[in-house]
Each structure stands twice: as C-alpha cells, then as structure tokens.
Write a structure and sequence with these properties.
It contains two helices and no strands. The protein is mostly helical.
Length: 104
C-alpha cells in the first residue's frame, strides 16, 4: 500500500516540475509567480504523499512486531507468572473520617 503512495509522490513531483516549467516559462511568456505557485503546491502534495507512505510502513512494521509477540506468547508452553494479589486489606482505614479544615 505504501508503494502506491511513493509512486504517486514521484508522479506528483515530476508532473509539478513539468507543469511549472511549461506554465511559468513556455506558455504565453514569463510568469515566475505561476511557476512558483504550481511548483510549491505540487511539491507539498508530493511530500505529504511521501509522509503517508512512511507512516504506513512504520505502522506495518509495528503490526508485524505485535503479531510476532502474540504468536510467541500463544505458542509458549510455560505458565504465565503470577502478578500478585490485587485485593488490598483496607481494615486500617475502617474508622477514618475526613474533616474539613477552615482556612481563615
């Protein structure tokens, strides 16, 4: 999936360069502002598509790592370690009363 975005980023970069040269210098005289506007907008889109492809690559690597961890834990025949007792003894707090202190 990320290769599609990389291809589109390269395509945008090339089309932007050719469009900027054509509309800025070859079509109807010299229009430097038009060339810069087309160039900056196209290169911005190309960088955004490239960033999306990098994000998708990292997400795919993280997902594969997570799958390998879950696969390893499921295939393990060792019993899971006991994490402790989650029930606390609250007898020491039995007669505790909160009081409001006036700060004057």
């Amino acid at each position: 999936m990320s290769s599609i975005f990389r291809f589109l980023a390269a395509l945008f970069a090339l089309l932007t360069l050719s469009s900027a040269v054509y509309y800025g210098f070859l079509a109807d005289g010299l229009h430097l502002g038009t060339a810069l506007l087309i160039g900056l907008s196209g290169w911005t889109w190309a960088l955004l598509l490239l960033a999306v492809s990098v994000i998708l690559d990292q997400q795919e690597e993280a997902l594969e790592h997570l799958r390998s961890l879950t696969r390893d834990s499921r295939n393990s025949s060792e019993p899971l370690p006991k994490l402790g007792n989650s029930k606390m003894n609250l007898d020491a707090l039995k007669n505790y009363r909160m009081s409001v202190k006036d700060e004057e």
